[in-house]
Predict the 3D structure of the following.
Amino acid sequence: MRSAQSPGAPARAVLLAMACGVALSLSAAPVSAQSYATRPITIIVAFPAGGPTDIVTRLLAPVMGAELGQQVVVENVGGAAGTVGVARAARAAADGHTLLLHNISHATAPALYKSLSYDPIADFEPIGLLADVPQTVVSKSGLAPKNTADLVAYLKANAGKVNMANAGRGSGSWLCGLLLTSAIGAPLTQVAYRGTGPALNDLVGGQVDVMCDQITNTIGQIRGGKIQPYCVTTKSRSVALPDVPACAEAGLPGFEASVWHGLYAPKGTPPAALEQINKALKTALADKTVIQRLADLGTAPAPDADVSPAALRAHLAAQVGKWGKTLDEAKIVKE
Ligand code: MLT
């Protein structure tokens, strides 16, 4: 799906909203013995395999499985900017054997889609936040501009001719593209994919020109010289990519666009199961191998205090409110 994105969106509001980090509180609950888990557990990822949501989920799944005494299987259910997979998770049996690992899209969807078949707050039990992942602004190899200032000039000079990939309305890559469009004040032709896994493949293949994507997905291709990095969407540089400037230092002040992730269960999942899943998530995020692998990919686990139902509940509610207001002010119409 291609669409010209208007440069008229109020960049400041979107920038501030993207920059909102994970600031939360913890409520611990006692763990009690029960009959959970009795069979393999499925974590639904609402984007295709190989993308950043999938990468993080597959890192955590084996450690969580060992803790829960059952295999944890990842099921990719992509489509409609993640809303197909989320709808599937909302309808699953509320017994702790189907979970959803989803990103910032969970909070933006209500502001963007007229007929969502689920309520991201009412239909889910929050389990915990797990990571807030920086994005990178990247292009296909060989695109003329070699730094961010030149990229901005190039995008302005080629208004409407440059294709920008994203994972659908409301996704992290789409929000970052909205910021870029606002920052350059010129339209980009947006090309929506089911996720940034396939989008990145097309960027490497040269079928699209530019994109934003989470560092966990792009870092390998950047290090391998297969795509061109311009900047990282955090206040300061990533230690994993020390030669790539932060967007702010590269001439895009305030350009911050990280992507937070949370784990959920369908509404009505028994509290005892939720406690065990939260414990397994905490164990996975404290695992040395997981931490090292996340660091290699340019990110880190959420602070332990944020890996709680209360923290994710509060964060999600705040983010739904924030994005509802921000996207409305930006005159992004519901589809
Ligand atoms: C994905 O897993 O494809 C991404 O998280 C999509 C995005 O939010 O840009």
